[in-house]
Amino acid sequence: LSDRNNVSPDDSASQMYNDVFGDEVCLKSHMEACSYGKLKIEPFIGRTPSNYRVENGIVEVTMTDYDVNSNGDRQTAAFKATQKLIGDLGHSMFDLVMFCYPRGKTAYAYVNSKFSFYSNNIKAVSLQMHEVGHNLGLAHSGQEGYEYGDRTGVMGYGRYLDDERFCYNPQKNYQLGWYM
Question: Do 122 and 96 meet the contact criterion of CB atoms below 8 Å apart?
Fold first, then answer.
């Protein structure tokens, strides 16, 4: 997403594609590895509800009602601009929708939802795994009174490095039902 002043995230659409779908260690490859093949992340290719053609799962959108230098509601601006371009984001053809904003706060996602949000770049696979984990219904993995205290999986403490091979801890894997 870029704002009305054409301020964009640091990474290009092709870099984002690589970090989510194309790299040796990306959300697609790592989620499949961590789930032992039970969850496959695939880029959307085809026509959206508004008949907009998506070639590789990545859509560049301009939030004409938003300025990154303001304190405005960027989530509302993102939804509005994206739905204007591609149509209903709640449509069943979309299982996961990731927004990458220029500048701003850190990443977050809604639990049991298809929407996750990233500030300026989405390079870190472990960060993508963490936020998509919320989408899949997972809470943070705390330990000793610290919300992110568990260092054995991506729902706890994260270093958020690019190409880091880090999965969910055993309890989260059990919760997801990926294997016994």
Answer: no
Starting at the edge strand found earlier in the chain, the sheet holding 97-101 runs 97-101, 115-119, 108-109
Both tokens assigned to 148: 């992110």
Residue 126: CB partners within 8 Å, gap ≥ 6? 154, 158, 159, 160, 161, 164, 166
Cα–Cα distance between 45 and 57 in angstroms, integer?
Answer: 6
State the pLDDT at residue 56: 95
Q: Report pTM.
A: 0.90
Average per-residue pLDDT for the chain: 89
Q: Are 40 and 32 in contact (CB under 8 A)?
A: yes
**Shortest CA distance to 57 belongs to which of 66, 44, 38?**
44
- pLDDT tens digits for range 138-163: 999 977 777 777 888 999 877 777 88
62: β partners:
2
- Say which residues have a Cβ less than 8 Å from residue 79's Cβ, sequence separation at least 6: 89
CA distance 101 to 57: 16
Q: H or E segment at 116?
A: strand 115-119
Dist. CA 9–CA 22, nearest whole Å: 19
